[in-house]
Write a structure and sequence with these properties.
Helices cover 64% and strands 4% of the residues. The protein has 515 residues and is mainly alpha-helical. A hairpin with a 2-residue loop joins strand 3 and strand 4.
């Protein structure tokens, strides 16, 4: 818009100037070789302008002629650059498609045409990785360290190659160099993973703080990780320094109120210190957010020496905090059974056994608790029934990480991920399809293919001998149990076993269930 206004202003000034010259005519005298020429002022100005235009045209033509070699060189370089970028683009597409041969070919073309471009070095490294040339990939990433634009990229590539080779020390050094030069999310995470894998909780906490200060992780994630690390530190210091462990657990509860292990440790340590009221409040607040058996166990045993009736009262308080939750009902049922109130225990878990229960069918813990109740009532047949149902019952909630089911919480998962364990219901195994099971069964041959047995030979009469004494009767054989279910041999006896045998069989089943 500004340029348009300037052009219009210049055009107006030119028009005013021409109008002024037309209103004020003049004469220009020119003497050339004894000849005198007299022209008007407007004509003289037009001739000068035309001469200037002609001189500009002649100069432009001469300048173009002298620049032809350089223009040809520029055009060749442009075509070479265009071909190089085409090869680079095709090479990256080949890497993404997994075509190692095409990636190597286009990488060589790009290196020959535009070898100075940073993306060419990346294509060379990735094509070497795709073809399995580890030495070539390491050489390409090492060459990237010589240029400031590709220095971080080279360190990340060397870090990944070192991890693939199992050289965790070298991988950590590359990550630390990258994090010191320019903090990056991958470098900070790699350093944190190494600290947590080795149990260096102080170093892990410092790494989380530095990553949060560099804004590599958001604030909620940083607070959650700080709480997990402080909980691990508190768990390690519970025996040797209970006061420091309590301070760490309380700080973890403040950072992550839903972290169950932090609340359980804090409640237990406060109870040991004699502050029963604060311990109860912490456990109740945590249980209201996440009903968990560890919290329930700590809450029921806040005061050592409480009677079984006191624990039943505390279990009823948990039911009021989280009414209808299966964990509350299981806690109340177990406390009532320990108090020898079998009817109350049976009534507590009755909603978990009903056919219209939210879960559809009772879980393993419910079946095992019912087996204990039936054993306390002396119904040994019902005990075997509930143990059989427990073998087929769905899983209860547990700590799950990387496909591993654990009864105890851990700050790091088996793969080395911080805060990897999640309290949830494990996934059930998928049964084999009916078609596959039918195909696996042996097929009986047709009746026509079965040859008739040969006629039996004639037997010669032999003298009759007295019959031997009758053998003792063979015991009744029980069919083999279902696959995956371990049953104690005592449970296969025809007579009802005693309570001790039931207890041994139940312990064996629980060991199998935990495995």
């Amino acid at each position: 818009m500004v340029r348009l206004l300037i052009f219009l202003a210049a055009l107006a000034l030119a028009a005013l100037g021409l109008t002024w010259f037309a209103n004020n005519p003049g004469v220009v005298d020119l003497t050339w070789r004894a000849h005198e020429y007299e022209v008007s002022l407007m004509f003289a100005l037009g001739a000068v302008l035309a001469l200037a235009v002609a001189l500009a045209i002649v100069w432009g033509v001469l300048r173009f002629v002298f620049r032809v070699p350089s223009l040809v060189s520029i055009g060749a370089r442009a075509r070479r650059r265009e071909k190089g970028f085409q090869a680079l683009s095709r090479g990256m597409i080949a890497v993404g498609a997994g075509d190692a041969r095409a990636a190597a070919k286009h990488s060589a073309d790009a290196s020959r045409l535009i070898g100075h471009e940073p993306m060419t070095k990346l294509l060379k490294a990735q094509s070497a990785q795709l073809s399995g040339d580890t030495a070539g990939a390491v050489a390409a990433y090492t060459a990237m360290l010589e240029h400031h634009q590709t220095h971080g990229l080279g360190l990340r590539g060397l870090h990944l190659e070192a991890r693939r080779a199992g050289n965790h020390g070298a991988a950590l050094q590359y990550a630390m160099r990258a994090n010191a030069r320019a903090p990056a999310a991958w470098a900070g995470q790699a350093v944190l993973d190494d600290r947590t894998r080795r149990g260096d909780w102080a170093g892990a906490l410092a790494t989380v703080d530095s990553n949060a200060a560099a804004r590599l992780i958001d604030k909620p994630t940083a607070n959650r990780w700080r709480a997990v690390i402080k909980t691990a530190m508190a768990e390690a210091a519970m025996e040797r320094d209970p006061k420091a462990a309590l301070a760490l657990a309380q700080e973890a509860c403040r950072l992550a109120p839903t972290l169950v292990p932090a609340a359980a440790i804090s409640g237990r340590l406060m109870a040991q210190a004699g502050d029963y009221r604060r311990a109860s409040r912490i456990l109740e607040a945590a249980y209201a957010q996440t009903p968990h058996p560890d919290l329930a166990a700590a809450y029921l045993r806040v005061r050592h020496g409480d009677s079984s009736a006191d624990r039943v009262a505390r279990a009823r308080a948990l039911v009021r905090i989280a009414p209808g939750d299966p964990e509350s009902l299981l806690t109340l049922g177990r406390a009532a059974l320990e108090a020898h109130d079998d009817a109350a225990a049976r009534a507590a878990i009755a909603p978990l056994i009903a056919s219209d229960s939210p879960d559809g069918r009772p879980t393993r813990r419910v079946c095992l608790l019912m087996a204990d109740i039936e054993e306390a009532d002396g119904h040994h047949g019902a005990v075997r029934e509930w143990l059989g149902r427990a073998a087929r019952a769905p899983h209860d909630k547990a700590w799950v990480a990387d496909g591993v089911i654990s009864d105890r919480w851990a700050p790091v998962s088996p793969s080395g991920t911080l805060d990897g364990f999640v309290w949830r219901t494990p996934d059930e195994r998928i049964a084999a399809p009916a078609e596959a099971a039918a195909a696996a069964r042996p097929v009986a041959p047709p009746a026509e293919a079965i040859a008739a047995p040969p006629p039996a030979p004639a037997l010669k009469p032999e003298p009759i001998e007295p019959e031997p004494p009758a053998a003792p009767p063979t015991p009744n054989l029980v069919p083999a149990p279902r696959a995956g279910v371990i049953i104690d041999p005592a449970s296969m006896a025809p007579d009802d076993p005693g309570p001790g045998q039931h207890e041994a069989r139940r312990r064996g089943f629980r060991l199998y269930a935990n495995e």
